[in-house]
Each structure stands twice: as C-alpha cells, then as structure tokens.
Amino acid sequence: MSVVDKFLKYVSFDTQSDAHSSSSPSTKKQLALAEELKNELAEMGVDQAEVDPYGIVYAYLPANTEDDHYPAIGLIAHMDTASEMSGKDVRPRIVENYDGGPIRLNDQFTMNSEDFPSLTRCIGSDLIVTDGTTLLGGDDKAGIAIIMDAIERIQKSNKPHGRIFIAFTPDEEIGRGVENFDLDKFPADFAYTLDGGDIREVDYETFNAAMAHVEFKGKTIHPGDAKGRMINAAAAAVTFAGMLPQWQRPEFTEGYEGFLHLLEMEGECEHASLSYLIRDHDRQKFEQKKQILRSVQNYINELYPDCCKLEINDQYYNLKDYMYGDMTSVDLAKRALEENGIAPASKPVRGGTDGAMLTARGLITPNLGTGDGNCHGRYEFVSIKELTKMVDVVCRILEG
Fold it and tell me: Active-site positions?
C-alpha cells in the first residue's frame, strides 16, 4: 500500500477520545486501530511490537549497522481524533490538482482559501478532503501513515540506520497522550512527534499551559428580601470574568503573546463555575497570568467571604525550555528537509504537543508537519504531495 492508501485505511477507524472517561485509553474503539498497527508492523518484520494495557503501541527496530554514528531515534503519532466533530464513517474524497478555487464539500458547506489560507500552500497538489459531515482524521492519522510507510521503506531498502523506536498513543486530543508513556520502553536519543500541518515547520517552542477552574458558592434569598443577605454566584462569576485583562483573550493575541481563555461557564444564584485555559510561551509571564487569577479570587472573597474557590493545574511546559540548548534533533530534521528541496522554518506553536511533556521528562521531542490542515472539523484536508514528501524526509532522518 502507498502512504495514501494507508492513510485512507486508518481514517476508516473511529478513534475519537472522550475527556469525560476515566479509563485508559478513554475509549475502547482506539484499541481497534492499535491492534491493526501492531499487526501491520509485524507483517513488515518489526517483531518487537506490542499494545500495552493503556492502549499505547510500542515497536522497536534494531540497528542494522554497528556504526555508532547513527543515533537512536523515536517516531510518535497519536491515534485518537478530536471531540469537536465526529470521526465515525469518514468518507474522504480526492480533489485532483487543486487550482486554488472553492472546494464544495456538500450542498451546505464549501471550503475556500479566503477563509482557510492554509489551502494556498497546496495549489497544484491533490488534496484529500471530507464530505462535510465529519472531520477527516488527518490529525493525526497522517502522522501514523507517514511513520508506517517510512518504516516499510526502511525495511525494504536495507539502508544503514540506527535503532528506531515507534509509538502510537491514544488520548492526545484530551491531553492524556503520554501520561502513561513508558520511557524505559523507548530509550531513544531523541524523538519526533509527527502531528503538525505545514511540512516546512520544525516546531520546538510551545506554550506553557495550565487549566484553571473557578467555583462560586452563593446564597439564595428571595430577591424582594435580598439586601445584605443574597450572594449571587452567577453575578460573582461575571464580576470575576470582567476583572481579567480583556486584551489577554485569545482573539486579541498572536505569535508569542499568551492568553487567558474562558473555555466554559455555567451558573445560577446558588452556584456558578468558570474554566480557563492559561497559556504563554514565557514562563515568567505564564506565572504572572496565574497570579492575576489569584488576585481576582482574593478580591471576590473580600466582597463575599468564602464565595470563590480557585484551582489551577499545570498541563505542560514550553518544549524549548527543557531542551537546554540541545538542537541536535532540530538540526537533523531541518537538514533532512533541505536535502528534500524544502526550506525549513520554525515558529512558536500556539498550543502544545505530546513532545512538550516528553521533553520535560528528558526525551527531547520536537514536532514535524504532516501535510494536514484545518484540523478538528469538516474543513480538514491533507495534501497528498506533502504527505508523500514527508515519508522521504523521515527516511532521511532515520538514515542519520
């Protein structure tokens, strides 16, 4: 099978994760793809392939040379798809030789480059698109297809390579992709996640990230007799949200600018709650944003004693900060791109990757593109040209 055939096969698996589940993996349906990948790896001659109790696929390909010039390299992609839209019964189609014009997905939805500028980089390429009723699953089954095709090619070519470690993880989309990742099974010198868009990009700067949950406890009194007695939790929540710096909302930020994003809210007089995403590339500014929330909490509790409870949990940290200046993996990836006629670039990721968490644990793991665009929704697409080219790039990386 070609890398395109592999991709079309993998998107037929419904692998949506579930943030409300406490199991690992969060959905059993992810295990179906995990078993398929394990079996395909075995058919390629990758004998050391397994699915662990948490649904992670691990595989190992020994070095075929005694030359210690070759580093031990890890390749990682995630199996789950996002919760924003269904990944069941995906019906992809191929748009040949995209000309830059609008792409009609169905009678209701059309995709065009004015609304989705990432399409402009794909003019002249064949595109895989959805039928407008589901997401495509390029995030991250494009990454899986690239890794699988590269491993198959490496096996057939018998070109010299060092040790290769492979992992396919569940639950990345709900922030739990590597919480059970066993680094003892993955002793690579460095690794790459293949979980991006534009294949020119080698990403190694991510946000620092935290989730804040704010609870408000009110006191319900008949409004006709409420003076000095009622505590309106919903009103306290509105006050809290209004006191935060409004210019630090995501719709006003870009590049290295962080944000405070109101993700969810609910409320009534007796009880209310707010959930925030806290993001910043700069660790000091990240901590300052958390302190802003604490200061507003203190103010609310001065108005209404014991009304406001704030819980902040860190999620991941800037990948770059834990590389400690070691650019070996980044330089190798950029060299591989250049040798395949692609001018590499790096820019700050306004999000995070599994690689951010792995890097903080000691395994430097930048992210590479896959040719996917507009992920998490009906307008998702994959450039066949970029998908195919990334197999060449990954093979070149594995050749050291």
Answer: 80, 172
Long-range Cβ contact pairs of 21-24 (< 8 A, separation 24 or more): 24/53, 24/54, 24/55, 24/170, 24/171, 24/176, 24/179, 24/180
Measured between alpha carbons, how far is 189 from 191 in angstroms, rounded to an integer? 7
Greater confidence, 351 or 324? Answer: 324
85: confidence class by pLDDT, cuts 50, 70, 90: very high
pLDDT greater than 90 at residue 19 = no
- Give every CB contact of residue 191 below 8 A, 6+ residues apart in sequence: 73, 74, 75, 76, 165, 329, 355, 358, 363, 364, 365
Domains identified in the chain, total number: 2
Please determine, for residue 97, whether its predicted confidence score (pLDDT) is greater than 80: yes
Q: Are 282 and 258 in contact (CB under 8 A)?
A: yes
Looking at residue 140, which CATH number applies to its domain? 3.40.630.10
* DSSP letter for each residue of 147-195: HHHHHHHHHHH------EEEEEES-GGGT-TTTT--GGG---SEEEEEE
pTM (two decimals): 0.90
- Provide the domain limits for residue 236: 208-316
**CA within 13 Å, CB half, 349:** 27
Please name which of 229, 246, 230, 334 lies closest in space to residue 292, comparing C-alpha atoms: 246
- Using CA atoms, how far apart are residues 234 and 236, in angstroms rounded to an integer? 5
Helix, strand, coil: what percent of the chain each, to 5?
Answer: 35, 25, 45
What residues does 191 pair with on adjacent strands? 74
Question: For residue 228, what is the domain's CATH number?
Answer: 3.30.70.360
